[in-house]
Every structure is written in C-alpha cells, then in structure tokens.
Amino acid sequence: MKVLIAGGGIAGLVLALKLRRLGIESEVFETTQHMRPLGVGINLLPHAVAVIESLGLREAVAARAIETSALHYYNAFGQPIWQEPRGLAAGYPVPQFSVHRGEFQMLLFEEVQRLCGESAVRLGHSFVSLEQSDDEVVATFARPDGSTVQARGDLLVGADGIHSAVRRFYYPDEAPPRFAQRMLWRGVTEAPPYLDGRTMFMAGHQDQKFVCYPISEPLRREGRSRINWIAELRVPGGTPPRSDWNKVVDKSVFAGRFADWRWDWIDVPAVIDGAPAIYEFPLVDRDTLPRWSFGRVTLMGDAAHPMYPVGSNGSAQAILDADYFAECMGLLQQGRFSSPAHALLEYEADRLPKTTGIVLRNRLNGPEQVMQIAHERAPGGFAHIDDVVPRAELEEIAARYKRVAGFDIERLRARAA
Ligand SMILES: Cc1cc2nc3c(=O)[nH]c(=O)nc-3n(C[C@H](O)[C@H](O)[C@H](O)COP(=O)(O)OP(=O)(O)OC[C@H]3O[C@@H](n4cnc5c(N)ncnc54)[C@H](O)[C@@H]3O)c2cc1C
C-alpha cells in the first residue's frame, strides 16, 4: 500500500506520520521548493493535540507553544462579555496550544524526514493532473524547471490547501473562494505579557475585531510574550485580492480604526506598532462540497473544507481528517472494507458532514457570536454583561460550538479513558 499526498502543509505532514505508524508508505509532494516557517499563529484545540500526542510530539510542541489557559471575549470598549478556561485549565486531558504555524509545520516536516527518510517529502512538486485505473492512481507533478514527474500509488490525497489543484481537477468550474467582505491583517509582536501571558482574547464584533494570543513558550520563560494578533474590518464591496498568506502591507491601511483601543491591561495600537511585518488576507471560505472521494482519490484539510478562521478550527479539523483517514486505512488493512475506494467513502462519510457543519456555523460567527449579540443589544457598551445577555445564553453558545466542532470535554475525557 502506498499513499501519494499532494501538499506538505499541516494535514499532509500529519497524515504521513499517522500512516507510518501503520506501516503504510506515503510520499508527500509539496509545491514549495524550500520549506520555511511561514505564517503566524494558529491554535491547536485539545482534540487535535490528542492526535499530536499519539504521534509522540506533544512535548516537542509544548517546548515551542503556549499552553493556552483561557479565552476571553470583550466588546469594542474592552468590557468583558465571556471568559472560559481552556485546555488543561478547563479539565481537558490534553492542553490547547497556541503556536507559530511555520514552527509547527517545520517540526512535522523534520519528523517526517527523520522517520520516513529525506526523500519522503518531494519539494518543488506541484500537482497538475491524475489518472486512475482499477489498480492504481498515477499523478503528474510539475517541477520548477517546467518538466513533469509521474508518481504511482494506491491512493492520492489532495491536501493542497485553499487553492487546491486536486479539488480543481474534480470541480474545474468552481467559483473562486467566497469573500466575506472582511479583511484580516495578521502580525506577531514581541512585548511584555498581557493578563497571565497564556490567554487568548477577542474584542469587538463582526465588523471590527481584534484577536490576540501569545505563541512562544521560550519567550514566556524569559518574562516576555510573542503575541500573535489579527485585526479584522468589514471593507467595501468589490473583488477580493487573491488570498495569499504572504502578502505584506502597511499598517496605515487599518490601524487608525483601532487607535483608541487602549485598556488598562492591553494597548492594542502598541501591539500593532510592534510588528515587524503585517500580512493581509481576505476572509474567505468555499461552499461546501457534496463529495470529496472519487475512486482512489480524496480531499483533506483546507482543500476539502476551507473555513473562516473562527473558533480556531482550521488546523484542528485538518489534523482530525488525517487521523480519521489513517483509522480507515487501519480498518482496510484488517479487511474491514472491500476496497481502498470503499475506505475513502467511509472517511468522507464521517468527516464531510462534520466539517460542513463547522464551515456553515463559522459563517454565523461560531462561538464569536457572543460578541455580535452583545454589540447588537448594547452598541454603546454596558455596565455589566448580565444586563445585556443572560449567562445561560452565553454558556449555551460556547457549549454548542464545542459539541459541533467535536471538542466537548465529556467526549475527550471518554476517549482518553
Ligand atoms: C504559507 C501559509 C501560511 C499560513 N499561515 C496561516 C496563519 O498564519 N494562520 C492560520 O490560521 N492559517 C494559516 N495558514 C493556513 C493553515 O495552515 C491551514 O488553514 C490549516 O492548517 C489546514 O492545513 P492544510 O494542510 O489543509 O493546508 P495548508 O497548511 O495551507 O497546506 C497546504 C499545502 O499544500 C501546498 N500546495 C498548494 N498547492 C499545491 C499543489 N498544486 N501541489 C502540491 N502542493 C501544493 C502548499 O504549499 C501548502 O504547503 C497558512 C497556510 C500557508 C500555506
């Protein structure tokens, strides 16, 4: 059994590691010619961390990442709406990590190379097309010099991100990503810690929002913080720029709107000022698909279900996809499916509806709807949140999203037991 994986991002690399544990060979084809630690912060929710733990990488991630202790929501005046403990502090059997995406990807990349060999990840290989027969799939990859390379395997997984070429192969007429009329500006700033140095917070509402979380354990140990932040604004209509994770812009585009967001525990303009580079990214997703699996080929992660970065689920769901795909391969090895294609249908039957629910709920602001509700009921602020939104309503929203996204504490405790 050999699995070809298009895309060496979070999903593709976790999948390679999961398959290796089953003794299944894989080959990852990554368009990038040189693996570099790109991106800013991501959150790994506890159910994804459980998968990372199963790969023996929990300690390695913990050495780099912040063990997130709490999540706080505020309105645009810095008044508290909702606060909840996270990860171990909330009683989960595993932590929630906030980590630099690129550092995490490099850790996975090096682990794949260590365990599967230097040639297990083929850099500078962009998926172009495929053919499949009853016995195999043959994929074609383009090289930077214009030549092409063919690879043969039993299965092909398209884990090639939001602009997936594997997805385009099956959905050639699909529209570009759906723009939410909101832009995101992302940066990383070194600064003194705010609150306990481990807390993620969001402030504002769906038209104007600021998100912050620290992402470096080594810096925390020095009494400093490496703060990942995202400023978000609704922007006038028109075609969005192509979503390029590495597009750098000047802060003057957005920073003025946050100029008076200075509260006694955080100075938002200073956080923005301190970033050496600011990356612009449109808030986009794609309409959900009716199917991901086509014979010996399937989709995974952002290629399958790109979603708004709401509720910290993008990376987590990609990791859960890889985990369940590997589980299906284990069942295939035990003869529980009639064919590899059957295993891919089971993978899809489980993961497609779950992730569809998250994509759609993230369009409704997911758990962040508490900020929108508070804003709509009290646009000028409030003396106390209880006067505006009853606690039971806030609790219900937080609990419902955790169930939908699969990280309600009961489920994780049961799985760990
Ligand atoms: C450079 C970069 C920076 C990012 N920064 C952030 C961030 O700061 N915050 C955040 O929340 N999310 C970020 N993301 C997205 C985040 O990694 C994903 O939403 C999430 O982790 C799901 O992972 P994925 O593996 O499905 O997709 P990705 O992590 O996007 O990985 C997809 C991989 O496929 C590769 N690829 C693309 N086309 C092809 C092709 N034709 N053939 C072969 N390989 C191909 C890409 O180079 C990439 O390595 C970033 C993604 C990228 C690629």
UniProtKB/TrEMBL annotation:
GO terms for molecular function: FAD binding; monooxygenase activity. Keywords: Monooxygenase, Oxidoreductase. Residues 2-359 form the FAD-binding domain. Transmembrane segments: none annotated. It holds the Pfam family FAD_binding_3. This is Flavin-dependent oxidoreductase.
